[in-house]
Amino acid sequence: MIKTVTYSALFLLLATVSCTGKSKQKAHSTASKIYNPSHESIATYDVPSWYSDGKLGIFMHLSAFSVPAYKNEWYPTLMYYEKDNPNIKHHEWSKTFRDHHEATYGSLKEFGYKDFIPMLKMEKFDADYYADLVKKSGASYFAAPAVHHDGFAMWDSKVIEWNAAKMGPKRDVVGELTAAMRSKGIKTGVSTHYGRHWKYYTFRPEFDTWDPANEGLYGKRRGDTDPPRPEDALKWESVINELVDTYQPDYIFVDGGICDAYAEYQKEYFRDAMYRTLARYYNKSLEWDKEVVLSWKRDAMLKGEAVYDTEKNLEEGIPSRPWQAHFTANGRWAYTGETGAYPINAVLRCFIDLVSRNGNLLLNIAPRPDGTLDKPQEELLLQIGEWLTINGEGIIGSQPWTIYGEGQLNSLRGGSNINDYDKNAVRYTQNNGSLYAWFVTWPEEGKLTLPHAAKFNPETITPLGGGEKLKFTKEGDSLIVELPNEQFGNYLWGIKLVKDELGQRE
User: I want to staple 174 with a disulfide (CB 3.0 to 4.6 A). Which of 61, 129, 147, 155 is the partner?
Assistant: First the structure.
């Protein structure tokens, strides 16, 4: 991505308007107090401590695609399968979506994606339940499902006429979740995927997408390979700005679809809009007297700007700036039937791997179309919270050590086997002068090897959750720790290494 941002005269005018006006100065850890849409200005905004210390966030996928519950959340585009549309990848596999839809619901002219909206009743949706669950999980922030690629807004939007307040569940889902989460002291924001909406649907006379009466959901007719238009980016910008003004979000998740306009057509519209929007968001945060976070994917921005987010992948080494990876609790982003959830130990291996590398975990849950969550996902979040109750001192507010550890560990990557990890892997974090070592397999011989930990030169080692001090010896740069006969804790184990008062951390 280039390091300068180009603007048309219209974009310059919008940027000027969005960055002016009265603002309350706040002691952000930044060099500049008024932001403009340039790399130099945006990069001065630091990541707030509430985010970098919190480590765990929760978000959800919930829209009309939860009704058919077929395979994945890409149902709205893949149901309109046409073999000659280059935007539809994996053609033979994708065709199964149209085959399933027509066999189950009939022709795409008579029953299109819009017809799932009245079936999204969410009659059992309880925002207070989700706030209580997120609080019990130990997560510090939450992102409400504002809008996905499908273009159906889950709030009372003035910009998107097809929204959940006017049709379907007829409720402001974002507003309900925001109020409930904040009542529990949880930092609350929005999850947005609208950057791909401009190219998401296929338009044919035999589809209901062709009907101008449905433009509010599908957008205006376009050819399969038509490039984005400036007004597409302006619509995206208006959507984000409306969410900012309406809910004053602590956090905004921006999905990678915003990058498609440049990656496929070399059009800068959306990337320029991203910088304008972020500058405006930061300036609004000064008025609100609060510190905010936006995360982004792919090449939407530059490293060092906001929070870089990866999907089911790790950053190499230990990045100096806090970052984030998002995974899903059950292998599916949206509800696709009763699929269960990942085992808690697999999720914790992923979590500790990210934290040891200065990263956060944003974990997705997928409610049913009636608004409820299945028991396996609920239990997973509760188990994470129980584990953090015992081990949180080495996680919440922690920083990476000089090394993240040894051995391959992350087990929730796309296409990977969750049992494919190094059984002897170790990870490190540090907090308040103590070093924390995390191990994923209880050694049969009862002796744990901590590579490089002898450099820390601890005076004492104790198990997290209570217990007697553990004996240990040095072997080169490693520590050999004698574990108790009975296991302490569950799933993934942590021990605390403390120096005497005269010791100096290396």
Answer: 155
CA distance 249 to 284: 10
Distance of CA 345 to the CA centre of its chain: 20
Confidence at 228, pLDDT banded by 50, 70, 90 = very high
Q: What is the pLDDT of residues 339-373, one digit of tens each?
A: 999 999 999 999 999 999 999 999 999 999 999 99
Domains contained in the chain, CATH given: 9-311 (3.20.20.80), 405-498 (2.60.40.1180)
> Would you state the structure tokens that stand for residue 68, as one six-digit string?
């058919």
Rounded distance between C-alpha atoms, residue 398 and residue 430, angstroms:
6
Per residue in 78-124, pLDDT tens? 999 999 999 888 888 999 999 999 999 999 999 999 999 999 999 99
The SS3 of residue 91 is: helix
Rounded to the nearest angstrom, the gap between the alpha carbon of residue 445 and the centroid of all alpha carbons in its chain is 39
Proportion of the chain above pLDDT 70, given as a percent: 91
Reference 114, options 179, 162, 82; nearest CA is 162
Strands 359-365 and 56-60: parallel
The contacts of residue 171 (CB under 8 Å, 6+ apart) are 122, 125, 164, 165
- How crowded is residue 76: how many other Cβ atoms within 10 Å of its Cβ? 26
Q: 240: part of which helix (H) or strand (E)?
A: helix 230-247
Q: Which of 433, 445, 423, 434 is nearest to 493 (CA)?
A: 423
